[in-house]
Amino acid sequence: MQPPATPDEGTVHLGHSRIDVDRRARTGDPEVVFGAGKSPQQVVEILTTLHAAHPDTAVLATRLSPESLDAVEQHLPGAVADRLARTAVLGPLPPARGLVQVVAAGTSDGPVAAEATVTAQVHGARVERIDDVGVAGIHRLLAVRDRFTEADCLVVVAGMEGALPSVVAGLVGVPLVGVPTSVGYGTGAGGLAALLSMLNSCAPGVVVVNVDNGYGAGVHAARVARASARAAAAPAADGGQAVLS
Amino acid sequence: MQPPATPDEGTVHLGHSRIDVDRRARTGDPEVVFGAGKSPQQVVEILTTLHAAHPDTAVLATRLSPESLDAVEQHLPGAVADRLARTAVLGPLPPARGLVQVVAAGTSDGPVAAEATVTAQVHGARVERIDDVGVAGIHRLLAVRDRFTEADCLVVVAGMEGALPSVVAGLVGVPLVGVPTSVGYGTGAGGLAALLSMLNSCAPGVVVVNVDNGYGAGVHAARVARASARAAAAPAADGGQAVLS
Amino acid sequence: MQPPATPDEGTVHLGHSRIDVDRRARTGDPEVVFGAGKSPQQVVEILTTLHAAHPDTAVLATRLSPESLDAVEQHLPGAVADRLARTAVLGPLPPARGLVQVVAAGTSDGPVAAEATVTAQVHGARVERIDDVGVAGIHRLLAVRDRFTEADCLVVVAGMEGALPSVVAGLVGVPLVGVPTSVGYGTGAGGLAALLSMLNSCAPGVVVVNVDNGYGAGVHAARVARASARAAAAPAADGGQAVLS
Amino acid sequence: MQPPATPDEGTVHLGHSRIDVDRRARTGDPEVVFGAGKSPQQVVEILTTLHAAHPDTAVLATRLSPESLDAVEQHLPGAVADRLARTAVLGPLPPARGLVQVVAAGTSDGPVAAEATVTAQVHGARVERIDDVGVAGIHRLLAVRDRFTEADCLVVVAGMEGALPSVVAGLVGVPLVGVPTSVGYGTGAGGLAALLSMLNSCAPGVVVVNVDNGYGAGVHAARVARASARAAAAPAADGGQAVLS
Amino acid sequence: MQPPATPDEGTVHLGHSRIDVDRRARTGDPEVVFGAGKSPQQVVEILTTLHAAHPDTAVLATRLSPESLDAVEQHLPGAVADRLARTAVLGPLPPARGLVQVVAAGTSDGPVAAEATVTAQVHGARVERIDDVGVAGIHRLLAVRDRFTEADCLVVVAGMEGALPSVVAGLVGVPLVGVPTSVGYGTGAGGLAALLSMLNSCAPGVVVVNVDNGYGAGVHAARVARASARAAAAPAADGGQAVLS
Amino acid sequence: MQPPATPDEGTVHLGHSRIDVDRRARTGDPEVVFGAGKSPQQVVEILTTLHAAHPDTAVLATRLSPESLDAVEQHLPGAVADRLARTAVLGPLPPARGLVQVVAAGTSDGPVAAEATVTAQVHGARVERIDDVGVAGIHRLLAVRDRFTEADCLVVVAGMEGALPSVVAGLVGVPLVGVPTSVGYGTGAGGLAALLSMLNSCAPGVVVVNVDNGYGAGVHAARVARASARAAAAPAADGGQAVLS
Amino acid sequence: MQPPATPDEGTVHLGHSRIDVDRRARTGDPEVVFGAGKSPQQVVEILTTLHAAHPDTAVLATRLSPESLDAVEQHLPGAVADRLARTAVLGPLPPARGLVQVVAAGTSDGPVAAEATVTAQVHGARVERIDDVGVAGIHRLLAVRDRFTEADCLVVVAGMEGALPSVVAGLVGVPLVGVPTSVGYGTGAGGLAALLSMLNSCAPGVVVVNVDNGYGAGVHAARVARASARAAAAPAADGGQAVLS
Amino acid sequence: MQPPATPDEGTVHLGHSRIDVDRRARTGDPEVVFGAGKSPQQVVEILTTLHAAHPDTAVLATRLSPESLDAVEQHLPGAVADRLARTAVLGPLPPARGLVQVVAAGTSDGPVAAEATVTAQVHGARVERIDDVGVAGIHRLLAVRDRFTEADCLVVVAGMEGALPSVVAGLVGVPLVGVPTSVGYGTGAGGLAALLSMLNSCAPGVVVVNVDNGYGAGVHAARVARASARAAAAPAADGGQAVLS
Questions:
Q1: Which residues are in the PurE domain (chains A, B, C, D, E, F, G, H) (predicted)?
Q2: Is G220 in a helix, a strand, or coil?
């Protein structure tokens, strides 16, 4: 593998792409490589470059092909690859602030839930997983409802009819992100049914990301958790009696 | 109003339409007038004609405009008009066989639930209504779950994300028809989200009708109830040990 | 193959999924494995686990890949695999109560009709098949119309323009489930044309399931048949003269 | 009303539009005014202009508003206005050559069937109407099937699930044009279900026009009839034994 | 290969399908095998069966895979296979009556045009091909416009924006069937743009078939040609002066 | 106006609907009336009932018609009606905790931004408005970018191409909810373009609500702010060094 | 009318909106008011404000309601209102540089063509109109083809099947913008067919704007013309022999 | 390889296609081969034929498969193949007149930007590339904004939410073509989100081509540049004071 390029003014020029190594300063988020469409060698090279620029914190790669995961494991022994989530993480995780719960309806939603989990961890949140609580067996969901109130943000992953976020959002007032998955067939193929279901939730306050976008949900959820932690470190931010603007 | 035409060979020729007065013999269902796009006078005339052909059982008119409902009340004092369901019924109801429960998620789903209710009654079923049990307040639904097992068929009406049939179908093994309603806005306008949600239910055995089609759901549910009653009057129909064909 | 896990509180934890072994008590339906996306080993393992929990009645696996069907035949000699339906059944069938007729328009609709057939049998109904009665040769359909009145529930399977349920529902008053299939090309590819056709049937009482969802139709149809049988065992359920609510 | 403009080189310039008075020579079809979006005065003016250019044969106006129909009746006493078809015809009809049958599924399809009827007559065909033969009452359709073989071209009009053309095309080998109508609601609103149904017909040789386009179907059907008549006037056109090109 | 089954009452039962050998008597069309989804052996078997039932006229197979075409050539030496059209024809063609012109916009539309051509020939029409006359080079189209008037029916095949039928239909009054093809990419992928374009043609009388459905267009066009020939053999069918119904 | 009904077990039964007065205890959110489809009298009655059950905190009504706003102002002098937001608020606002910024692209997005603003205030957040910062004049957006870092949650409202959330989310790491609006025409009519744009944002962590759903965005944003405040009142919640699960 | 506000730092704050009066310096384009959704008084006020800031050049208002057009004519006697284009122009036009031809398929496309015309003139181009050259009468189009070569940019407006840009772009190499219009019905309603047709044109180099967006096409076309003029005033810009990058 | 066919009357007949060698005289554009669906041998053959007819200027082939690129490199040593753009160019480039800037949002948009680049060069423009300026890192875009004013036409390529053209068009008044790319997943798959975003841009004057159609954008942009150069060679084309038509 060729040696990584030298960072310059917040941008690193590799042969195949320009890497924005300034994003962290701008947004507080770690650097991320979107692995789809990139060769195994490119993935390894970008991870190496980003890690060299930020040796003190984790960088994340998502949507990795099996070949890219193989290459990461072979060339970057310090990286942690996750075959289910299709991710790799290189460098130490940040301190975990706040709690994100990732709730999944069924076994088939596992890969997307795993991507959300790894992403939220790399973005600085503690994560709990709650699995197999689909709405067709509501008793399993109700058995864990008390746990939901402990979370700073919920990520609720479901395919097929995508009803789970509506039911969970009716149980607690915790901020909640719905993630539709492309699990299904016929009119549900591609996740359209689940996406529309979540966008039209009868429960208030459900926000949504694109189909299978566990990464986006993980980023948002971790940001919410980080905001909680930031507030905890500062004096109480009560703004007094509100007035309607 | 001009006098109704004379029935002839199973068909009545009015000026504006040919009425099939033979349907009942063919399918066991009552005669029905689809009122959308028909003038108040036409509605009254067709109801009168069908009632004359079948004085011993109810005929049903659906999708009536306020003007048509006014005309029915004025010209057909024996008819029962329902402003919410937008229906009118003329003639005695058949004996009620079996039990249909019509379950509605929210207040806005009321008109469709009412259409399903009247339809099932005219088609020979007893009907119970269970209202305001949307999934965003799951405790209200669970409070009535034991009642569901008493039904011969469930008609579950919901708009927005349309999750209610999935949750109910996970609770009981009763035959269940989902009815999506056009309640909603944005991407949910027109009922598409609810329809797709029900078609892609993760709970097994949910069948679906078109958006706002309370009539179709009522017909199917009543037929299921009638089948139950027919079986009850006959010797037990156990077919012995099944074999895979 | 590793030994199956031990059931505990209605749920079995295998390495890859949590199995709900309580569903039968809740809904009266048998246990089912949705085989899509599962490895042959996982399918065999789950079937084994479910069968151990319910040795006295059949468990069903659907959407099996050819490899999973091979594995079932090799490792579970007591199972019955159906290559056309892509199903496997392990354990004795329940007594057959009521009659479901599965009606298919054309040869290409065969796999979906077969899935509906096996499903209804495993869910406790007797099943008859009526094939190749597409609407483009209406004489073949009319030749069998008298048989339709014997059914407790009809499952009507059709691709392309999906007109068959409309025609059949105009002939008899038996409860009828339409199953659109993804047979077709151009604008009909994916089954959208057939699905919309059935949702918009001019014949009253047609209910619909998702494209290619023979399983869902089979469950509903068998439930209708079971309801008929339950009624037959109890005193007549006539509710007296109905009243409009 | 201002006096009509003078024709010049196949085009007449009115204040509001340029009228192509040469189309008849080019295609053999009569002149037609598409009335949608035109004022009553414009409709009258264009009809007057076209009639002056072609006094020996009919000109047709379609999609007329009630106000335009009023204006035509008031200002053009020689014109024949049809309130159902929303058409007006000015000038003598051409000789009727060949037979077009316009077949309609239900009462609501009447306006589109009427537009097809008038159009085919103005384009030189004899037209028969066959109404209320929807597929939900297949016996009414079968009662008239022998008549279909007499037609040179069939125009089959249906809304909702749009199944009628498939059934008719399975009965006879006559050229057949399907016309989907916007009759319906929910997913069928706008005629999409009927259009897709006809495009995906399992019966061979069904051709289709746009939703509610009775005019287009009438033009095509009359052209087919005219072709038949042209052939009848000439010596037999048998091309001998065909060869595969 | 196993010996073909024996015909019985208009239907032949092979192991895998029931063949309707009565269609020709009913519609005048030849027998056709839709080859998609059928194995090479099944195609050969059905062709053999149909040819045995109708040795005096051609049977047609469409949508054949390369493997099925190989099998036809190997096992049925009397058959004519067309690799571009993906068709096979077995048995003598009927006499050619009337003229169908198949007009194609570009080279990529060739397979669909070829399917329409073979189909029309097997259904009894003489066929001429006019190729590479897309609207982006309108001079090539105008160079052949005089030939269009000789046709009894035009089949106009185009992908991408599908404008060719509109332009041709503006030039002549011959019956015209548009065939959209799935040639294109982006929003045009799948033929939707071409289909909508043809359905919304500003030229009157354009009728349309499903995307890539050269077969359907060929059947319709040949029927129009056969109608012309039938008329030619009979006394002139002038219906006298038409009257508006 | 009839006197309000008596609360009972968390539910109040009015003639027209059952009101859930228990939601606040369950989720911490205030009571809300969705005004669409309700009569002015019903809106007033439900607001009165909810206010009687919760006199110490605000209740909110959204999507009010002008007539309902009139009725609220006439009958409930203590209520604050907002004509732009189409909302009414009755009862004292809760203390404002945390800061929500509502950012709007253009003047036409004002009503949706106003609904989000009022909702977030009623749900307990302080709100700042930043208007007219559409991406076509990027200098206006950059002029206020430093303010964004002060917010606990951003609500970014945009119609047409909906690009604003992507640009803002690239500037700061604050949790951000995009709200597409139905401002636009042609292919953008109904807000589809803006919705898809936000779902597919190239900036990480953008979450989305349904078109025009300012209410949903306001609920989520206020919940995020409340979470921040809850954390501030408790000891620091640092979870120590995270580990990849 | 209240006196207009004072400009300040490139932005004028009226009560209802902030006006960007700096756009001209940034892009060279004039100021424009999008009138949809604005009251007549607001339109007049904004036009007055913009004209005060830029008295030496025209400002444009588009999508004006009849009431706004009335108000403009009453309150701004110096303005030129166009009822067909639904525009108003206040202030002197810029010098006309370059030639834009606006080509329209039919009479119904007139309003969109008029909007494009006025827009291009206000943005500094000379404009010629060529009307009624739809593809169904190709001879009219060919009669004017030589004129197309004189234009610096063509704006081609068409509804229904939208084929005109493809045909024109095949005739000349002039830059060409297609504008689909919402003229049509059925599947063509809303302009989707025309939009897709233009996006998928088989003629190279056709660019497209949103449905009915005559304004956008006018801006682009005038910019192309201004670029031509700018080049004419400078020394020749030949870049020498190109090299493939 | 067989020898190329002889040109004749502006058309060359190869075995597999008719080549229009007259297009250059008609439109001033070079000859182009659309390589999708053509075999490597066909591509080489057509390039050879076109080059023989126009040896003094470049011919272009697009959408070449890797195999076709291999064949071009092997058989046509004078050709320049571009693996990223999937193009091949044979013959000398024309003189470069005017400047096209091709601006790309991200690395994944590279192939489409490369196709636009090569196309514009072959069509006679000088091209500059500006890469990796996506809106999520707006500082990179602002760093290059001054360069945009030097272009005669901008081609702006973006996938996902496709916001880049809106932002760029708000910065400068240069003619701008947006090219949506199929980069993305979920609801963005296929480029629909980016396409709708660009069609609905809030910035005036953005014109659009089909998804991934770098070729079409390159043709239009080069034509704009050629128009600029043509104007530069002629006397100033100021048309004097414009008048509203």
A1: 98-230
A2: helix
* Residues in chain A, pLDDT under 70: 1-24, 26, 229-243, 245
Indicate which of F148, F168, F197 best probes the interface with H, i.e. most H CBs within 10 Å of its own CB: F197
DSSP letter for B53, please.
H
Closest of C186, G137, C108 to residue E217, by C-alpha: C186
Alpha carbon distance, N-terminus to C-terminus of chain F: 59
Three-class DSSP labels, chain D: CCCCCCCECCEEECCCCEEECCHHHHHCCCCEEECCCCCHHHHHHHHHHHHHHCCCCCEEEECCCHHHHHHHHHHCCCCEEECCCCEEEECCCCEEECEEEEEECCHHHHHHHHHHHHHHHHCCCEEEEECCCCHHHHHHHHCCHHHHCCCCEEEEEECCCCCHHHHHHHHCCCCEEEEECCCCCHHHHHHHHHHHHHHCCCCCCEEECCCCCHHHHHHHHHHHHHHHHHHHHCCCCEEEECCCC
For residue G195, the chain H residues in CB contact (below 8 A) are 199
Whether the Cβ atoms of residue H62 and residue H34 lie closer than 8 Å to each other: yes
Confidence of residue H109 (pLDDT cuts 50, 70, 90): very high
Q: Which long-range contacts (CB under 8 A, 24 or more apart) does B20-25 make?
A: B20/D137, B20/D140, B21/B49, B21/B50, B21/B53, B21/B54, B22/D137, B23/D137, B24/B54, B24/B57
Mean pLDDT along residues G173-188: 90
* G-contacting chains (≥3 CB pairs under 8 Å): D, E, F, H
Beta carbons of A106 and B202 less than 8 Å apart: yes
The residue among H215, H217, H224 whose CA lies nearest residue H198 is: H217
Percent of chain H past pLDDT 70, that is, above it, reads 82
Q: Which residues of chain D have pLDDT under 70?
A: 1-24, 26, 229-243, 245
Instruction: Report yes or no: A177 and B137 within 8 Å, Cβ to Cβ.
Output: no
Q: Do F117 and A210 touch (CB under 8 A)?
A: no
8 Å CB contact between D81 and D209? no
Distance CA(G240)–CA(G233), nearest Å, equals: 19
How many residues can be counted in chain B? Answer: 245
Q: Which helix (H) or strand (E) holds E177?
A: strand E176-180
DSSP letter for C8, please: B
Average pLDDT on B107-129 reads 96
**Minimal CA–CA distance to H187: which of D192, C192, F192?**
F192
- H200/H180 Cα distance (integer angstroms): 12
Against chain D, the chains showing at least 3 CB pairs within 8 Å are B, C, E, G
| pLDDT at position B235 over 60 | no
Reading phi first (left if > 0) and then psi (alpha if -120 to 50, else beta), residue H107 is in alpha
Q: In 3D, which of H138, H146, H142, H82 has the Cα closest to residue H110? A: H82
pLDDT of residue H21: 64
Phi, psi for A42 (deg, rounded to 5):
-65, -40
Residue A13 contacts residue A5 (beta carbons within 8 Å): yes
Taking alpha carbons only, the member of C55, C52, C88, C85 closest to residue C70 is C88
Secondary structure E strands in chain G: 11-13, 18-20, 32-34, 59-62, 80-82, 87-90, 95-97, 99-104, 126-130, 153-158, 176-180, 206-208, 238-241
* G106 C-beta neighbours (distance < 10 Å), count: 24
Confidence of residue E217 (pLDDT cuts 50, 70, 90): very high
Q: How distant is the Cα of H119 from the closest Cα of chain F, in angstroms? A: 27
pLDDT digits (tens, 9 = 90+) for E56-105: 989 999 999 999 999 999 999 999 999 999 999 999 999 999 999 999 99
Under a CB-based contact definition with an 8 Å cutoff, are residues D91 and D57 in contact?
A: yes
Contact: B192, D188; criterion CB under 8 Å? no
Q: Does B117 touch chain C (CB under 8 A)?
A: yes
